Amino acid sequence: MLKQTIGLKQFQKLSPQQIQLMKLLQIPTATLEQRIQEELEANPALDEGEEANDEAKDSEEDFNNEINEAEEDPENEVERDDEYELDDYLTEYIEDDPSSYKLNANNYSADDEDKTVPIAVEDTFHEYLEQQLGMLKLADERVELVAQQIIGSIDDDGYLRREPEAIKDDLVFSQNVETTVEEINALLKLIQRFDPPGIGSRNLQECLELQLRNRLETATDLCDEEDRSIRIAIRIISEYFDEFSKKHYQKLQRQLSITEAQLKACIEEVLKLNPKPASGYRSSNTRSSQYIVPDFTIVNRDGELDLSLNSRNAPDLRINEHYKDMLKSYKASRKDPRSNKQQKEAVLFIKQKIDSAKWFIDAIRQRQQTMYKTMYSIMQYQLDFFRTGDQKNLRPMILKDIADITGLDISTVSRVANSKFVQTEFGTKRLKDFFSESLQTSSGEEVSTLEVKKILTEIIQAENKRKPFSDEKLKNILCEKKYNIARRTVAKYREQLNIPVARLRKEL
User: Fold this and answer.
1) Is residue 273 located within the same domain as residue 219?
2) Is residue 254 part of a domain?
3) Domain count of the fold of the chain
4) pTM (predicted TM-score)
5) Which of 61, 129, 358, 471 has the largest CB neighbor count within 10 A?
């Protein structure tokens, strides 16, 4: 049975402007520059450059009145669903004044220089392998295609992680070439003798073994002791790789009937090897370089901390003057009987672009204010750290602490702290690193977990590597230092610091 009822309910709905602000607040400085470029290209009513203050003050009120009058004019009521053919108009507008908006942002500080870094022309890693392949005398063109398919299947680390059966199928479907698994394995053995040593390995064990055998075959200046160490190392990698990776040194000594000094010499030979044989042959064009652009800068001026926002976070944006003039000209001619519907539609289009530009400028300005307010509160909260640079001076701080100080929502503080960096005299730090939980000492004082991790790292660095501390021993040492902590918490912090267990930290 169908029936109609009237209900009243309340719900929260975000406006497009709020969504735009949240997205702008979350992105770092390097991405913000690209986002501004996109907006400049998409909205011709948005322009770069700072307006003259006197002119801006005199014309702001008149400009707003003109927009309101154009909006309130009943003659401007047109159908929103109409398709506006404004291509000719926009083309004419851009051609008449190509400088009305720029495609290049000039948001750098005066100290920044526009430098063009020349890109060196280098062969790629796979081209380097193909050059070596050309030096081999292969049977025919078909065999060469198979070898090229194997080289193309080698990844950027130098490993061949694709199975021979899969390579065989790839050749049939892509090259229409028939081959066998035996032929693929035979060609792979030839490729594994290419430079760099260890190329084409199926796993780490094979990679290390290939490099050791290559060193044994090619090195001409080995003494007897080095030759013996490499031969034993080859046997360790090929026959006792599991015991070696788990550092069961005593078991290796018994199995191989060698002394501790001999085992140590073998381990040193293995440590000279490259676990990623292709790492040194990557072209600079393909190498992904990530540069950190700090969003804030803190300078210590005789004990007083000075916080500044990166100039790229504060670009000079304004409404395009030509679009303002268009609205003014329409105001003068709107009572003209020759004024047609197409002109009114063009004015509504102009107003839409100007409103979008104003929203974007306001969002950028609000982003600056929110970021500065949040970072200033973090700086005041962690004042001792920013003055000394000692990580032990970091206070326990969570998002709610900063939210309570700034009056912002926790989600807003989280967006500011996400992917943002601050440059200090002690290095560039991630904002997220200043947030940590608290841990209570035996005296009842609350300390940051970052301080505990710092002390834990120092203890492990100073330990005797022949007899490294277990998690239980680390817990006892921290308890002696008045930190109440459980063994499982020590294990959790150790894993967060990427420190292996005691057995894997053992050295001879």
Assistant:
1) yes
2) yes
3) 4
4) 0.57
5) 129
